[in-house]
Amino acid sequence: MLAALLAQTRLSPEALNAFFVRPPLMASAESSLPPIDWDALTFSFTETDRMFVAHGTWEDGWSEGEMMDFQPLTLTPAACVLNYGQGLFEGMKARMTPDGRITLFRPEMNARRAADGSARLVMPEVPEEMFVDVVRRVATENRRWVPPNGRGELYIRPIIFGSSARLGVAPADEYMFVVFAVPVGPYFKGGMTPISLRVSQEHHRAAPGGSGGVKAIGNYAPGMMPSKKAKSEGYSEIIYLDAVDHQYVEEVGAANFFCVRDNVLYTPELTGTILPGITRLSIIELARSMGLEVMEERVDIDFALECDEAFCAGTAAVISPIGSIEHGEKVVNYGDVGKITLDLYSRLTGIMDGSSEDPFGWTLEI
Q1: Closest listed residue to residue 44, CA positions, set 189, 148, 165
Q2: Catalytic-role residue among 93, 189, 215, 330
Q3: Alpha-helical runs (H) found in the chain
Q4: In a 10 Å sphere around its CB, with 0-12 CB exposed, 13-18 middle and 19+ buried, how is residue 8 labelled?
Q5: pLDDT per residue over 267-277, tens digit each?
Q6: Rounded to whole angstroms, what are the CA distances from 269 to 18, 53, 336, 345?
Q7: Residue 176 and residue 65: Cα distance in Å, rounded?
Q8: Prediction pTM value
Q9: What's the rounded Cα separation, in Å, for the pair 366 and 136?
Q10: CA 17 to chain centre
């Protein structure tokens, strides 16, 4: 689409890009009212208006791609992603500020993590500038689906995967970069209501030397069974321990783990088996700016059970306080939402939704 326009106009690519991204698209009065109940939003799929697709190869890099109406993708049954799981995804949110602006939260960090993951999975990296620009464009063209301030967010899902046919176990010859968006509500029901967790006694999320530090699609299906079983028994999610000693906390389902003891914040260090979450990094930086001591180290499950507060964090959940953890025959209750947990949540969400000052420059207006 851009190539055709360039052939008919004297505008530079930069000017055309600015045209597509700014100012926001204007919608008719009817189209500006999506068929959705903002107050009934859950963290689930809803088809929206527009999506982006680009194709790439190792030799030629990535095409400019194009925005299109939301639609199914066409893939060969022999696609590398379907047969060997060569693919990754990212997740981020666009939010409506109290004064009606729409912002993204640190999208450049998602771009860098996707590039690192692509290198690990032998896929061509999407340039940071292209990644961030496409995310902005998808948010812009789906702006009518951004929930009002305080009533949800527009979750944006970029995917990079091997799309060409591959029968032997080897990298694909062709790749796709796809970005779509969905309005969502809370990841855990009840918002800031403390959740109950159970430590997995049989399953592990990742092992040293594997792909645990990458947001690879293959990392998530194995966790569905233990997570579903825990939820069927009344728990909100599962806690995974390390695969070597079966003693150190790794992640809470698909979220990073934090605990507080004597006003010191602890979180498992990045050893290659834990996803380097953008929310995790932001909490660490925010906590240190507040004068809190933050320890990134191996967190023994017995130590975690003796802490004063605990919570998990991620793009989907933001911050969810942990009310109780069951480990074998032992059950520990942390009580109501802890002071430090609540303070971090209030400050972080205030920056994210524009209701508080952003001293770090983390938010980007679309």
Answers
A1: 189
A2: 215
A3: 2-8, 13-21, 80-84, 107-120, 128-141, 224-232, 278-289, 301-305, 339-353
A4: exposed
A5: 999 999 999 99
A6: 40, 35, 26, 21
A7: 10
A8: 0.89
A9: 6
A10: 25
* 213's tokens: 């530090």
Q: Tokens in use for 273?
A: 């088996």
CA distance 182 to 163: 23
Closest CA to 181 of 138, 151, 233, 212: 138
The type of residue at 240 is Y
Report the distance separating Cα 108 and Cα 127, nearest Å.
10
Instruction: Render the burial of 157-188: b for 16+ CB within 10 Å, e for the rest.
Output: bbbbbbbbbbeeeebbebbbbbbbbbbbbbbb
Q: What's the pLDDT score for residue 22?
A: 39
Domains of the chain: 2-185 (3.30.470.10), 195-353 (3.20.10.10)
pLDDT one-digit tens code per residue, 179-229: 999 999 988 766 688 999 999 999 999 999 999 999 999 999 999 999 999
Asked if 228 is an active-site residue, the reply is no
State both tokens at 121: 């999975």
Residues 110/314, Cβ–Cβ less than 8 Å: no
Whole-number CA gyration radius for the chain: 21
